[in-house]
Amino acid sequence: MTVHFSLPYRTAYGQRLALCGSLPALGHWNIAQALPLHYDEATTRWSAELAVPADAATAPITYKYVLLFEGGGVVWEWGDNRALALPADAAYARLEVRDFWRAPAQDDNELFTAAFTKALFRRPASAAPAAAKVATAKVAKGKKKADAHP
User: Which residues share a beta bridge with 98?
Assistant: First the structure.
């Protein structure tokens, strides 16, 4: 199966993108061996194709995009590793993955900072539920009255 990865990203002179991840073709998380992406001016997208062997299609592919600088600097995209579960159906010969760059400065990502996750959105550990009390009622003893209606 062939997986085509692409994402829009505006780079400056001396910058390039690569795809780094769990497969040997993605460098086994080694940036020096990551899969380089190529820029297409017509679509303004960076992209690369990855041939996935059948035996590697059983486990999800984990990966991240990396911004590489000419002088040796590296910037990993923000957030957890991406995971791609490939379809088990062999009828698919090509899979198109259209991603976007996850930058830490995006407004939505501020909610995942420690200030929010460890303080404002913190959930206390749930306590064990209290034992239920069994209520008993006393029934007053009395005499039955005869029905007045026939």
Answer: 6
CATH class of segment(s) 2-100 = mainly beta
* C-beta of residue 76 within 8 angstroms of C-beta of residue 64: yes
Residue 135 pLDDT level (bands cut at 50, 70, 90) = low
Q: Give yes or no for residue 14 having a pLDDT over 80.
A: yes
Cα(47)–Cα(17) distance, rounded to whole angstroms?
9
Name the CA dihedral angle for 75, 77, 81, 83, rounded to a multiple of 10 degrees: -130
Burial class for 78, CB neighbours closer than 10 Å (0-12, 13-18, 19+): middle
Could you tell me the residue ranges of all domains in the chain? 2-100
Amino acid letter, residue 57: A
Question: What is the value of pTM for the model shown?
Answer: 0.67
Distance CA(103)–CA(93), nearest Å, equals 32
